[in-house]
Design goal:
The chain has helices at 10-13, 25-36, 53-59, 62-69, 91-110, 141-151, 169-175, 215-233, 259-276, 291-306; strands spanning 3-7, 44-47, 79-82, 85-87, 116-119, 158-162, 181-188, 204-209, 237-242, 281-285. It is an alpha/beta fold. The protein has a single domain (3-306), classed as 3-Layer(aba) Sandwich (Arginase, Chain A). The longest helix has 20 residues, at 91-110. The protein is globular, with a radius of gyration of 17 Å.
């Protein structure tokens, strides 16, 4: 297997404050664990480009883009978007790199340059609505990449898999009326963003779970609800919103997953991708705020993607 990892130093320059859990240290923790686990040299490291403005506009309104682009503060200052989302001097550039990584990975996978990819980028994306940034997220990286695959590259069906502890409300909204995209997820409820769960449909299987849910329950959800939907849909490509804050050591959420659970979920998606999608998977970092647990979980995820 050829697995690429996309990142860029600009993604570490976006900083919402020393107090903020969505910190630059997250990407460094991942890089350190990849080196410590001796798999970094086995991956194809690629630089995240800036996103094409047309790809941003495919998922986000002009106003949503302007909120980020036009409010970048001076060096050393911050601009608050909401109570837990803000901009610094590097945020616009970092957001362009994060979305650009997802699109570049999508093109590389479709073109057969690589089998799959992980985008080690920030800011994360799955809360970003088509009309506004929110919840640590500026632009919805996975949604942008999935729409690029459909509308630019001509794929007919894509699946989006979200295993973050929080509900991927922005992604759900972006594809609620898009039959070419299947979204499957689980998320702790109630928890931010405190949206009422939507009814499960043929192309949205988003499953709320209570706090303290552990891996055995999640594996049943994947086996009994996600996999039947994925097999019925037969996606031509799979996108993963890879949040690792459902880990038992992560205080942001209250679930009980461990590294083996992330590896197992990833393996199930690999199996589906082999059947219908020529193995094509692009995964993008979402949450995960305990630095040690985050690094270890990403290693488990990447080992499954790269079959190491």
């Amino acid at each position: 297997m050829s697995t690429a990892i996309y990142s860029h130093p600009d993604c570490q320059r976006h900083d919402m404050g020393d107090w903020h859990p969505e910190s630059p240290a997250r990407l460094q923790a991942i890089a350190d664990q990849l080196i410590g686990s001796h798999i970094s040299d086995l991956l194809d490291h690629r630089e995240a480009p800036l996103v094409d403005p047309a790809d941003l506009a495919r998922n986000h309104s002009a106003n949503a883009i302007a909120i980020v682009r036009d409010n970048v503060p001076a060096e050393g200052e911050t601009y608050p978007i909401d109570g837990d989302t803000s901009l610094n001097a590097w945020s616009w550039r970092a957001a362009q790199r994060a979305a650009g990584a997802a699109v570049a990975a999508t093109d590389a996978v479709i073109d057969g340059e690589i089998d799959n990819a992980f985008c080690s980028v920030r800011p994360p994306g799955h809360h970003a609505r088509p009309v506004e940034p929110m919840g640590f997220c500026l632009f919805n990286n996975v949604a942008i990449a999935a729409k690029h695959a459909l509308d630019v590259r001509g794929l007919q069906r894509v699946a989006i898999v979200d295993f973050d502890v929080h509900h991927g409300n922005g992604t759900e909204e972006a594809f609620r009326h898009e039959p070419r995209a299947l979204m499957v997820s689980f998320f702790q409820h109630p928890l931010y963003p405190y949206c009422e769960p939507q009814p499960i449909t043929d192309h949205q299987v988003n499953v709320p779970v209570p706090a303290y849910t552990k891996g055995d329950v999640v594996r049943r959800i994947v086996t009994e609800q996600w996999l039947p939907a994925l097999h019925a849909f037969q996606p031509e490509m799979i996108f993963i919103s890879a949040g690792f804050d459902a880990h038992r050591e992560d205080d942001i959420g209250g679930m009980g997953l461990v590294e083996d659970d992330y590896a197992w979920i990833t393996q199930q998606m690999m199996d589906v991708a082999r059947l219908y999608a020529r193995g094509r998977i692009v995964s993008c970092l979402e949450g995960g705020y305990n630095l040690s647990a985050l690094g270890r979980s990403v290693v488990a995820h990447l080992k499954a993607l790269a079959e190491l």
